[in-house]
Amino acid sequence: MSVLDRIESLKSKHADLEHKIEAEEIRPHPNDTLIHDLKRQKLKVKDEISVLSLN
Description:
The chain is mainly alpha-helical. The chain is built from 2 helices and no strands. It comes from Terasakiella brassicae.
């Protein structure tokens, strides 16, 4: 897998995590722990995209 392919894959994963966060936040009783975990995963993905983009 090329670096560009990996970045595109990560961008897709980042968007998917954002949708999951939004869906959880609009629920009547959102799971704060789940939201926190999803946000942490999203930040890791964003950091990896940043590292790969610098190369």
